[in-house]
Amino acid sequence: MAELDQEFPSPHTHGAASDELHAGELADDEGDDSEGGDELYEHHRIQANRKQELLRLDKFLLLRIPKTSRTRIQNAILAGAVQVNSQAVKSNYRVKPLDIITVTLPEPPREFKVMPEPMDLDIRYEDPELLLVNKPAGLVVHPAFGHWQGTLVNGLAHHLANLPTGRNGEVRPGLVHRIDKDTSGLLVIGKSEYAMTYLSNQFFHHTIERTYLALVWGVPAEAQGTISTNIGRSIKDRKVQAVFPFEGEYGRTAVTHYKVLQAFGQVALVQCNLETGRTHQIRVHMKHIGHPLFGDATYGGDRVVYGQRTGAYKAFAEKALALLPRQALHAKSLGFEHPISREFMQFEAELPADFADVLKMWEEHAAAPAPS
């Protein structure tokens, strides 16, 4: 059996690469589209041992880099972020003795430290173990490249004296899940390491009850259904997520249950319940069945998708889009078992004003008599 390789630190190397190789996926990943500059920074330099057996590059890195996955490594290789002996190679390259593998990325490695910042938090519940907050749209949840300050975690660090670091040493201050920057709604925060672990296990075993409200373009043919696919970073555009065959080798299993609550002709209000929590899951799944979220620029919902592209209707639809210049998605409810009392707790948050106003516009539009 080959001996373990040594990892040689370079002047730029700062430890594990789980959050460097991908966007730091949690239950509901932020998936921000922050872009770095032209300069590349070396995050890892690994030299194969003299007795290294021939092994695929992706498998080699999977064994050597902690807290990552083969899919994430393959994405990095496809993007040219991984080189062997200063040459770009494919995932099926066979690592040989004394090969030098480097991982370079646009953002510099950074020692992570959360800076507390005063922030008005809409706290819906708090006790010694956990806190429930209603996040407004536009607020980034977790500090990351391009968003080191002004995030929800910075506000939580100010509100809480001792914010737990995360599971197994991972830097996820208080978080057991998160939602996209431009999605509003409920988040549960663990105030102790024990609470984080207990809540995280519920997410892992899919016992958390999560309900989202989404305004989508068009009306799904089936009033309710289940969307089961794999979701992973797009091969064509790594800034977005894409659908892949269910239980295939690429991406991770994603299951969304949906139900049409109201239909307004060209749009519909849909309830979505997550069985899994993948990056942009609802947004990707609804686009996959032909009904992108209203206002979602990333997945094609920021234009008139259904209905006439000219005349009064087009003007009305564009006015509605201008009123809600983001994806119409709201994390309405959360249900979970309390870490200490074991009581099942259920919370709900009302629609934010911009979402509610656009919904009212479509209701009135649908109820108006057709022009004679």
From TrEMBL:
Residues 26-38 have a biased composition (Acidic residues). It comes from the Bacteria. PROSITE patterns: PSI_RLU (PS01129), S4 (PS50889). The keyword RNA-binding applies. Pfam families: PseudoU_synth_2, S4. Its EC number is 5.4.99.-. It catalyses: a uridine in RNA = a pseudouridine in RNA. InterPro entries: PsdUridine_synth_cat_dom_sf, PsdUridine_synth_RluA-like_CS, PsdUridine_synth_RluC/D, PsdUridine_synth_RsuA/RluA, RluA_PseudoU_synthase, S4_RNA-bd, S4_RNA-bd_sf. Residues 1-38 are annotated as: Disordered. It is an enzyme of class 5 (isomerase). Keywords: Isomerase, RNA-binding. Residues 55-114 form the RNA-binding S4 domain. The keyword Isomerase applies. Belongs to the pseudouridine synthase RluA family. Responsible for synthesis of pseudouridine from uracil. This is Pseudouridine synthase. The lineage of its organism: Bacteria, Pseudomonadati, Bacteroidota, Cytophagia, Cytophagales.
